[in-house]
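Bench log, entry 3. Co-assembly request; chain sequences pasted below exactly as received.
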Amino acid sequence: MKTHLSPAIRLTLVMLVLVAVIYPLVVSGIARFAPGGGSGEKVIVNGKVVGYTLIGQKFTQDRYFNSRPSALDYNAAGSAGSNKGPSNPDYLKVAQARIDTFLVHNPGVDKAQIPAELVTASGSGLDPDLSPAAAKIQVARIARVRGISPERLNQLVDEHTKGPALGLFGPSTVNVLKINVALDALK
Amino acid sequence: MNTELTGVVVTYLITLLLAIPLGKLVGKIFRGEPNAFDFMAPLERLIYRVGGIDPKLDMTWKQNLVALLTINAVWFVYAFFMLLFQDKLPLNPDGNGAMTPDLAFNTAISFMVNCDLQHYSGESGLTYLTQLGVINFLMFVSAATGMAALALVVRAFLPEKTSLSGNFYVYFTKAITRVLLPGSLIVATILAFNGTPASFAGKDQFISLQGDTVNVSRGPAAGLIAIKHLGTNGGGYFGANSAHPLENPSYATNMVELIAQVMLPIIMLFALGYLINRKRFAWTVFGVMTAGFLLLVTPTLITEFHGSPAIAHLGVAQPAGAMEGKEVRFGPLSSAYWSIATTVISTGSVNSMHDSSMALSGSMQLLGMMTNAFYGGCGVGFLNYYYYLIIAVFISGLMVGRTPELFGRKVEAREIKIASIVALLSTLLVKGGVAIAAYVLVHHPDVNWAVKPAAWLNNTGYHGFSEILYEFTSANANNGSGFEGLGDNNFFWNVSTGIVMMLGRFIPIIGPLAIAGLLADKKYVPESAGTLATDTSTFGLMTFAVIIIITALSFFPALALGPLAEYFSLK
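Structure output for the full assembly:
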């Protein structure tokens, strides 16, 4: 053990310099050339930062596309899911309450058409996206509140739909913050 | 075809396409043959010189083992004190506090042993200094330790009559300079250009469109997330791990992170085939592991795609599948695939919350960790497979009436004893731990710990039992994922899982090293017509049966009480 203690300590020190000092500094240097300069890409409206592209935020007002439920109410100082198991009776009551609330705010919507993502919490609590279907089911409500035609809003959803990666892999998504910024700009 | 399914299939295929040729490269690196990374030689010479290491020194298996354990002990002491005093050290823009001693104990062990169980959340539990100087550092060196251990063990498979030797320090250094560091730089760059933060800027504050004041945690995350996957570590920079949109910004990065984490265990397998000149053997092992992987992944994909039966009862649509605990940009299928990939190999990072997975998926995730050898962690995956292999050789030898032997060396009582003890120990650690936790929960619900036992579980009934079972299984398998509803940051869980993690890591390294050392000392008998071939599909099937029987017998009762009971009660 003794003969190995000196190389152990010295090797630890040199590896600390290599992987815990040089490596992160190099990555940080490369990231300066990335969008947002390695500090996160911001969304700016009229010179004011209104959020980060990737960080979902709370939208509960009827005039906006509402985001998904969040276990931590979109407090981005942390991140968490609900961790509720699929058979948890309390959790199912919460989900039922979300469905009822949604139906109150969106009269005329057929319950069987509500995508489950609108009544279930995401893994991070900061999910920035909705599926196109979950955005479109909210169009009638927003059209009524804002006095914009549903056709125009459906078109807006289509414009903001990001297709699968390379057109081949994964789901289509709509960034909730970006579409709501565009919604405010429609007037 | 469904784009989500295509995404999963192509992700797996790209992993194989990259891993198989890279296996040969890593084999060359460990053999010391000329290779593409020879430009790293001057840096390595510098490291040896500063480290006081003679790279030409051949050490016995015992010396190598002592070297490995000593340097791990140094890391533990260093990490423990850094975490304990992180609030007084620089690079703490968010003003986060120190860890309690029991949490620092748990975290230092967790990252030293490549487990990465986290009883804290990165946003509030660590500083930028400890994220880089402790977490990011231990991720590199613990992965390199596993790779070096594998390289040392396989030398016993070579025909030359060498007493098992080699130099731990050299394998360890080369694993970092030629594999982990270059690979991590590539992955980190991809992540940074897709939106993962990599700067030292602290928390930001803004007012949202709806008028809420929101704080956003940031920091030097991209580099850490790269090695977290490449080294099959799995500890998240942020609390929500790779479900966090900054940790895993898009479906494309999700594919990259998936490929990065599954790649190295497969690379090491083919490197092994090259190291010992037995490519057919490597393919046989790969076949067994792949069969096991697919058997776990397929039912998980199907069950998540069908969605939650309880949510279906409420009458809403589940067009993509189950969505609780999952992110829209990944969807249920990629989340299902990830949940099995991360549990069969020992990463333990998550892109969805496993606690909210369907009951059947939970069983598959648990089985992945209980077996821990369907690919397995980088380096140690094969070491776990190795003791199944020894047992399979022994049993089939007895069945056909031949002397059990592996690669020209007789397998006798001592080797079998070691392999059996290692195989049985995991059962003891997992089920023993679960039993104690359940006892404390029932009989001492009000002990004055940071989280009282009565408040440990986030779910009641069968699922609550699964939360306990998952935590100990994950600790023993050096996995690190969790049913995160468990209230685990308190004295009981920090200490108990800390001990389980330590034993779950070092016993499966010491055991195979000892077996290899014993085998290498024996006389080499060239293979003949009377030798039991270990590279045939018959023998592969035999090994597979051994794995299934050992795992099923050990863990089926526990599974039946948790996720299986929940599954049948939901019908």
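The CA atoms of residues 80 and 124 of chain A lie 5 Å apart. Chain A is about 45% helix and 10% strand.
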